[in-house]
Design goal:
Elements (H helix, E strand, L loop, with lengths): L7 H11 L2 H6 L10 H19 L3 H7 L2 E3 L2 E3 L4 H10 L18 H14 L1 H4 L5 H11 L2 H13 L3 E5 L15 E4 L5 E11 L9 E8 L10 E7 L10 E6 L10 E14 L5 H37 L22 H33 L3 H36 L11 H9 L8 H11 L7 H15 L5 H23 L7 H26 L7 H9 L2 H13 L3
Parallel strand pairs: 3-6
Antiparallel strand pairs: 1-2, 4-5, 5-9, 6-7, 7-9, 8-9
């Protein structure tokens, strides 16, 4: 009961039956050869086999032993290095990387499925390769040919791991406060000095090298975020010497004990500039946006792992007679028959299945944005990814924590005891609401940066596209009305009252969290309709409308109150 087991058929069903991925991929010249259902299914099944046989059994020890720091070096829990070496040698990190860089050139959607499984099985271990694809894309788009020649294939294959070094003790989400300095050297490189904190995988023994991507400030740089440049610093340089990057300690955390969260000190470490001076955030956002989708998948995976445990326990645990039970007097029923437990389990199932639909579609849209021959279709894909990614990151990581706690409730007192394994999911899930841009920042990004500047034009276009899709499903009237209702609310309430000349400057900020959550529920309504229109979808669509959708009215009332509307 303690070990998560992937169910490849569930992932394949949503990707290929609900989202019809083979048809979507067949329209992309670069991926058409990988559109065969048999190939997609085989990759998903093999991923499930690796995750279930290799990673799931390490999760408990990873949590109990944790990463160990000693004299600047970090030793990972037993079995972790062997698992990682098997992982990259089997080609899993390279799924969606370009073939010319040592990758396999497969669809991004397969990488999404893989990472959901990895996080569900072993969140702490998966933190290490979680940044690989983002680092690869960052260097591929912004680095010089010299840097690409040294690092790109190593990152594409996963032979070397990577970090993202942004945060400093005085500068959390406000990157404009970064103080790490980059001093030019005679050979064209730079000497980096400063301290970075909360660096996931900043030091470990999983791979033979670690590539640090570091935000720092040149001597003549202006203050604020526009003065930041991006640099690459390897743990070991090309001659095999260790760089002047020191792991001063690892944090003692609430969860993800197997992931070393490091304090790194750069002591005039030799670095190379990535991209143009002062354009570091532009380059780094490539990595951050990739990471945000993966964090949304973390939320879905962790919630699924918690649901698996709670569902299995509910089938076995017998307590009292359930209402309406046919059991004889004095007999106890499995608690899975009790309505209170059914509500908990069905609610989480609705979040998991609709989240998969949205996350896997986002992965497909990333490939469409990159490869579709029609410019208008590429633009639509970019719009989807821009608006939906912050929702996935925020809403599903929040639900992972709330839902894991609800799943713990199914166990009663046993859930609070470590031997059952459910409490680890609650502890592990909490961090996903914080890193890669807090959930509050995701909400601000959605409303203030992506909705208000164009008068909600992009959002309304996306909502219209959802409505058009729903029109083809006559049984989806409720979902159609849900999308239309949100569209009308944005047009009639949000825009006029936030953009009015006399509106308080902070009104939109107060509104942002409820706005994102309401939009998440609307997206779930569409996803539920797609599920309901696909035979074999199970109980999730009905559970969504019964247990999850009523929250939408609450969010509208909260927004009306914030807006000062009657």
């Amino acid at each position: 009961m303690n070990a998560y087991q992937p169910r490849p058929e569930s992932h394949a069903f949503i990707l290929m039956e609900v989202l019809r991925a083979p048809e979507v991929l067949a329209e992309l010249p670069a991926l058409a050869e990988h559109a065969e259902p048999a190939l997609l299914t085989q990759v998903i099944e093999e991923a499930g086999r690796f995750v279930g046989e290799v990673l799931s059994p390490l999760n408990r020890a990873g949590d109990e032993v944790g990463a160990q720091w000693k004299a600047g070096s970090v030793t990972m829990p037993p079995g972790f290095r062997d698992a990682y070496q098997a992982f990259w040698r089997a080609g899993w990190p390279s799924l969606a990387c370009a073939t010319e860089d040592g990758g396999q050139g497969l669809p991004t959607a397969l990488e999404a499925v893989l990472h959901e499984m990895l996080n569900a099985a072993n969140h702490g271990w998966t933190m290490a390769p979680g940044l690989l694809h983002g680092a690869y894309e960052c260097l591929k788009h912004h680095a010089s040919d010299e840097i690409k020649a040294r690092y790109l294939e190593k990152l594409a294959t996963g032979e070397w791991l990577a970090t993202m070094c942004l945060t400093e003790p005085h500068a959390g989400s406000d990157l404009g406060l970064v103080r790490t300095r980059a001093t030019p050297l005679p050979d064209g490189r730079f000497a980096l000095s400063g301290t970075k904190i909360f660096i996931s995988g900043g030091e470990h023994d999983l791979s033979d090298n670690i590539v640090h991507l570091v935000l720092a400030r040149l001597p003549d740089a202006p203050p604020g975020p526009r003065g930041l440049s991006l640099f690459v610093v390897p743990k070991f340089d090309e001659s095999g010497h260790r760089s002047a990057v020191h792991c001063e300690r690892i944090e003692d955390k609430m969860g993800i004990h197997a992931s070393p969260t490091c304090v790194l000190r750069f002591d005039e470490a030799t670095a190379s500039l990535v991209g143009e001076p002062g354009k570091g955030l532009n380059a780094m956002f490539v990595m951050m946006n990739a990471a945000r989708l993966l964090v949304g998948l973390q939320g879905i995976g962790l919630l699924d792992a918690a649901w698996q445990k709670a569902s299995a326990y509910a089938q076995e645990r017998r307590q009292m007679r359930a209402p309406g039970s046919a059991s004889r007097a004095g007999e106890a029923d499995a608690i899975a028959l009790h309505p209170a437990m059914q509500r908990i389990l069905l609610t989480q199932r609705a979040w998991i299945d609709t989240g998969r639909v949205l996350a896997y579609r986002t992965a497909l849209e990333l490939d469409i944005q990159k490869h579709h021959p029609d410019a208008a279709r590429r633009e639509a894909a970019a719009r989807w990814c821009s608006l939906v990614t912050p929702v996935l990151k925020s809403a599903w990581t929040e639900q992972a924590f709330i839902g894991a706690s609800a799943c713990l409730q199914v166990f009663g007192g046993h859930g609070y005891v470590r031997e059952w394994g459910i409490e680890q999911h609650v502890r592990d899930a909490r961090v996903a609401m914080i890193y890669e841009g807090t959930n509050e920042i995701q909400a601000i990004d959605l409303l203030i940066r992506k909705t208000l500047p164009d008068g909600a034009a992009a959002l309304q276009t996306l909502l219209a596209e959802l409505q058009a899709d729903l029109t083809a499903m006559p049984e989806a009237l409720a979902a159609h009305d849900a999308v239309q209702g949100f569209s009308d609310f944005v047009r009639s309430q949000v825009l006029p009252m936030v953009t009015a000349a006399d509106a308080p400057a902070d009104r939109a900020h107060w509104l942002a969290d409820d706005f994102l959550r309401a939009f998440a529920l609307v997206l779930m309504a569409w996803a539920s309709a797609r599920l309901a229109a696909t035979p074999g979808a199970g109980d999730a669509p009905a559970a969504f409308w019964r247990f999850v959708w009523p929250e939408f009215d609450l969010r509208l009332r909260l927004m009306r109150s914030t807006l000062g509307a009657p």
